[in-house]
Amino acid sequence: MSQIEEHFQTFPVFETNRTILRKISYEDQEEMYSYCRVPEVSKFTVWNTHQSIDDTKEFIDFVLNRYESQKVGPWGIENKETKKIIGSCSFVNWDNRNARAELGYVLAKDYWNQGIMTEVINRIIEFGFKELKLIRIEARCHPDNIGSAKVMEKTGMKFEGILRRHIWAKDDYQDVKIYSIIKDDFESVFGEDPAIR
Hints:
The structure is a single chain. By secondary structure, the chain is of the alpha+beta class. The protein has a domain at 4-136: Aminopeptidase, CATH 3.40.630. It has six helices and eight strands, in the order E-E-H-H-H-E-E-E-H-E-H-E-E-H. The chain has helices at residues 29-36, 39-42, 53-69, 116-130, 146-154, 183-190, and strands at residues 14-15, 19-22, 75-79, 85-95, 100-107, 136-141, 158-169, 172-182. It has an eight-stranded mixed beta sheet with strand order 1-2-3-4-5-6-8-7, with helices on both faces. Strand 7 and strand 8 (172-182) form a beta hairpin. The longest helix has 17 residues, at 53-69. The protein is globular, with a radius of gyration of 16 Å. The two termini are 28 Å apart.
């Protein structure tokens, strides 16, 4: 049985039309802070708005440790034009025995509603099914997070329901919407040519 971690021994770098998906480093600190400090960006996340660049450094410390210990760490989303990081995407949870993984993502507000995150998630879904041999990829969002739900729908994920009081975040137990795409869906729509996504 394939182990997801094996595919991150050498961190996989991907390219989409407008982005490069690569490791996050301390050099990204300023750009990351510039969007993590925006309240609208963190409104529906489980993490709080960054109050100082120290908060961002602490997050990057966590990311670098995850690369080292768990191997499966987040991709920084680099804008090809500016060479600056504008968000991140990662498998936040994975289950090798059951061949499934959960995606999480965040994008700087200046890049919302341009199809960039859909482009990124499409590439990661392709990697998940074709290289990692996953059977199921899922993602979750706050019920009021319309933008995130749209990304899931545009990448072929199907709404499965609301998990009530599912997570503790920002001093409250919150409901979450759950979406998924399974390998059968992916193959029946895109076959061997995910470039049509």
